[in-house]
Write a structure and sequence with these properties.
GO terms for molecular function: GTP diphosphokinase activity; guanosine-3',5'-bis(diphosphate) 3'-diphosphatase activity. By secondary structure, the chain is of the alpha+beta class. The protein has 26 helices and 21 strands. α2 runs parallel beside α4, α7 (about 120-130) crosses α9 (about 155-175) and α25 packs antiparallel against α26 (about 700-710). The longest helix is centred in the N-terminal third of the chain and has 36 residues, at about 195-230. Bound molecules: manganese (II) ion.
Length: about 725
């Protein structure tokens, strides 16, 4: 490790003068004095005075050519965190811009970064951007991290690992996002060195060998290009460019290669041609392609289509001298600066006068707007600006669980939203909330970086009031669902009570009704799906309890009457007639003859066990049998019985002539059957259709009747009908 150079104030001021000549640097000098006093007596692990750290950070920021408030903030960035200084003091002495940057950096350092970072790196980066408000906060944080990485050797091993991983996963991608390529590369290589020291050492050695071996080749190609540029009258320079170690390492891993297979990577070292104008870039591309054969699919035009972080360049890979592949990048000086320094390059180089003037003002919005203005010159800057804008003014807040998990919620979200984001039950029983250890009201507006703790109690229930302030649709729908269910329970309770009261007036209870076999039928008669819906309807007042009780009583009476009739008929002893029904091995089973097929004694029949209403008897050929549950079908047979009579329906087709009805009636009466109903239709083809409902003793009786009728002249057909 090289011995760290201790930065002096004059180094910082000189650096500032190099890009802001004549700038008034009193703000920076004042910050230096203040920081020196605040950190007096503090020592870093390296043994150096603590002040060396903020000095180095400020110097890095000056190397990034940032504005004066940012450099002042770099000097002050640890004063609030590590000394007795308050943010109010900073605000009072250095103004809002400096104070806001210092405050932002301090807040970031308070974030509870834990082992969870790995899983949520993307959210964490977004959160940093969201917290920052001002990108300068991120830039100071990056400079701070860079210096800490440069001096990481003084840290104990476990801290080195944690900090390096965090740098690799959070800060290097942020630097890349902002287009600050040199910073990204340095952060990655430092992290790589601490995380995988053995791989780092071996790879560095191997890369050095490869570079040494290719040096002559590169020089040869370089000379050819330089000569050609001169010939064409293009002013430009050609530099050898070495890929940084971590990107080589990543490339090896991506391609499942070991360090020994390094020779397979052709772009470890390449060339970069830097010219003045955009049109010269394409000229140079033409020259390169005329000298060496390009490899198809390897040409990329990032000038016409810049990368999201504003990077612009032409890339091509050609088969150079000796058949060896090499990558050549072509860009302008401006593009080269942007590629190295990212956004900082853009606003400083092009607008240094405005920057100097406005650095006294506050407001990151203005700063961003200027950046957007600059971007209009670029051909396709939309992606970058959009993504930057989203990150700077997100519609989201990022908050922590006490365990360090990050939850992303919409702006304006409350502890109740957070509770439902954890779990529905946590939401339902969310009684109190603590933010950063302090109790807050449930409608508190969560801020990015808050650590939120929900206190649940079993008796807590969702409240309708919560709907007034929750922001997430998840919380809203869960609360509504709960309230709806709760209301239904209330309605049901009300319905039950009203019904019970009404039933008691007729010496019944609701329980008796619910147990009664007719209850479902009653519900359906009011067009409800089931009894619960009926009860709910009473609760809602759609139906009075009187209506229900009345219909129940009426229906029950009617049913009882029917049953009685059947039983009476079966038992009537004086009525001569032969048969009755039985199921083997049972007595006193209640039978109903099905209305659909009207079976007669002597018919082949099948019984169907109904729910609570005895057995319904169908003719064996009744089409309705197919629709019934076969499990409930049962054998029944006719037995010599007590001489009941049964109804049967027949259908007689005749020619249409006078006296037919009289003839048929006569034939029926001759068999001692009663005609209960008769009707007649004439058809267009001069035929008549008679329907008779008859009272008969059994199937044999009916067969006799039908035979007699068939004998009548003019009768075409006689059929027994099902219903
Ligand atoms: Mn620091």
């Amino acid at each position: 490790m090289k011995k760290a150079y201790i930065v002096r104030l004059s180094d910082i001021l000189d650096q500032i003068q190099s890009y802001l000549p004549g700038a008034d640097t009193r703000l920076v000098e004042k910050a230096y004095v203040f920081a020196a006093r605040a950190h007096a007596g503090q020592v870093r692990r390296s043994g150096e005075p603590y002040l060396s750290h903020p000095m180095s950070v400020a110097y890095i920021l000056a190397q990034m050519k940032l504005d004066l408030p940012t450099i002042a903030a770099g000097l002050l960035h640890d004063t609030v965190e590590d000394t007795n200084v308050t943010i109010e003091e900073i605000r009072h002495l250095f103004g809002d811009t400096v104070a806001d940057i210092v405050d932002g950096v301090t807040k970031i350092s308070h974030l509870p970064v834990k082992s969870k970072v790995h899983k949520q790196a993307e959210n964490f980066r977004k959160m940093l951007l969201a917290m920052a408000n001002d990108l300068r906060v991120i830039l100071v944080k990056l400079a701070d991290r860079l210096h800490n990485m440069r001096t990481l050797e003084y840290m104990p091993e476990h801290k080195r690992q944690r900090i390096s991983r965090e740098t690799l996963e959070i800060y290097a991608p942020l630097a890349s996002r902002l287009g600050i390529d040199w910073l990204k590369r340095e952060l990655e290589d430092l992290s790589f060195m601490y995380l995988y020291p053995e791989d780092y050492r071996r790879l560095r050695e191997e890369v050095d060998k490869v570079v040494a071996a290719r040096q002559d080749f590169i020089e040869e190609v370089k000379k050819i290009i330089v000569d050609k540029l001169k010939e064409e009258g293009i002013k430009g320079r050609v530099i050898g460019r070495r890929k940084h170690l971590f990107s080589i390492y990543r490339k090896l891993q991506r391609n499942n290669l070991s360090i020994d297979q390094l020779y397979l990577i052709y772009d470890i070292i390449g060339l970069r041609v830097i010219v003045q104008q955009i049109k010269e870039c394409y000229q140079v591309l033409g020259i390169v392609h005329s000298l060496w054969k390009p490899i198809p699919g390897r040409f990329k035009d990032y000038i016409n289509l810049p990368k999201p972080n504003m990077y612009q360049s032409l890339h091509t890979t050609v088969i150079g001298p000796g058949g060896r592949q090499m990558e050549i990048q072509i860009r302008t000086e401006d593009m080269d600066r942007v590629a190295n320094e990212g956004i900082a390059a853009h606003w400083l180089y092009k607008e240094d006068k405005i920057i100097a003037a406005s650095s006294a003002k506050n407001g990151q919005l203005e700063w961003l707007e200027r950046l957007i203005e600059l971007q209009k010159e670029l051909q396709n800057p939309r992606d970058f600006i959009e993504s930057l804008r989203m990150d700077l003014f997100p519609d989201e807040v990022y908050v922590f669980t006490p365990q360090g998990d990050i939850k992303v919620l919409p702006r304006g979200a409350t502890p109740v939203d957070f509770a439902y984001a954890i779990h529905t039950e946590v939401g339902h029983h969310c009684a109190r909330a603590k933010v950063n250890g302090r109790l807050v009201p449930l409608d508190y507006e969560l801020q990015t970086g808050d650590i939120v703790e929900i206190v649940t109690t079993p008796h807590q229930k969702p409240s309708r009031d919560w709907l007034k302030f929750v922001k997430t649709s998840r919380a809203r729908s869960r609360i509504k669902q709960w309230l709806k269910q709760e209301e239904r329970q209330r309605i049901l309770a009300a319905g039950r009570e009203m019904l019970d009261r009404e039933f008691r007036k007729v010496k019944l209870t609701l329980a008796a009704f619910l147990d009664h076999e007719l209850s479902e039928e009653i519900a359906k008669s009011f067009s409800f799906k089931n009894v619960e819906e009926l009860v709910a309807a009473v609760g809602y007042g759609k139906l009075t309890p009187q209506q229900v009780v009345k219909r129940f009583l009426v229906t029950r009476e009617k049913e009882a009457g029917q049953e009685e009739e059947i039983i009476t008929r079966k038992r009537r002893p004086h009525h001569r007639g032969p048969e009755a029904l039985s199921v083997e091995g049972t007595e006193d089973v209640l039978f109903h003859l099905s209305k659909c097929c009207k079976p007669l004694p002597g018919d082949e029949v099948v019984g169907y066990i109904t729910r609570g209403r005895g057995i319904t008897v169908h003719r064996a050929d009744c089409p309705n049998l197919e629709t019934l549950d076969p499990e409930r079908l049962i054998d029944v047979k006719w037995e010599p019985g007590d001489g009941a009579t049964y109804t049967a329906r027949i259908w007689v087709l005749t020619v249409d002539k006078k006296g037919m009805l009289a003839s048929i009636s006569g034939a029926i009466s001759a068999t001692e059957a009663n005609i209960l109903e008769a009707d007649l239709k004439t058809t267009q083809d001069r035929r008549a259709l008679f329907n008779f409902v008859l009272e008969v003793s059994n199937k044999a009786h009916l067969d006799r009747i039908m035979n007699n009728v068939k004998q009548i002249e003019g009768v075409i057909r006689v059929e027994r009908k099902f219903a």
